Amino acid sequence: MQINGNSVLSNLGQAAASQATIAENFDDFLSLLTTQLQNQNPLEPLDTNEFTAQLVQFTSVEQSIATNKNLEQLVALSVTNAFTSTVGYIGKTVVAAGDTAQFADGEATWNYSLSAPSPETKITIHNSAGIPVYSETRAGNSGNNTFVWDGQLENGTQAPDGAYSISIDAKDASGNTVGVSTEIEGVVQAVDLTGTEPILTVNDQEIPLANVRAIKS
Q1: Last residue of a domain, which of 71, 88, 105?
Q2: Quick one: which of 34, 74, 144, 184 could link to 98 by a disulfide (CB 3.0–4.6 Å)?
Q3: What's residue 1's pLDDT?
Q4: Do residues 100 and 163 touch, judged by C-beta distance below 8 A?
Q5: How far, CA to CA in Å, does 125 sit from each of 95, 118, 120, 133?
């Protein structure tokens, strides 16, 4: 679930305004009640039961708004703490759902998981423009696998440093498609807290916090 911190704070302000309005109306009601009681006709007294019922209604509404305000304060505090705690991710190595990794220092690494053994797993590497630059076919085990690319291109030259994405087409022994999920791994360089959820910068890529699957020291 995504929580918009700005929305929470806005709702908190609206609750405070509503409470102030109720308080003003409640004071007006008491002032009116007091005035009417002071000036009532002794021979035809006012119906105090009606005033009592209205008083109870005002009190109930006031208590409801106070309760909502306290709950929204707790939510706002929880959002703030959650956002702040993500700063601790900086410098940590994370594993996150994704298909794009940085090629640097002679290699790029992807983790991928297969739903079943795949004797024919075609792996294709694409450059930042989405153009295939390398491919190979290998066997893959059911569960977790790792592919490390040394940067060799189809034409035999070396790839320049930068972002590259992976696509995997896996098939079982009967030629049926095997489910694949890919992950990337890298060090968190920064955390962006300006949006509806924290965004981690990993290897110069933006990764939503919800995509993080593991954290390593």
Answers
A1: 88
A2: 184
A3: 38
A4: yes
A5: 19, 19, 16, 6
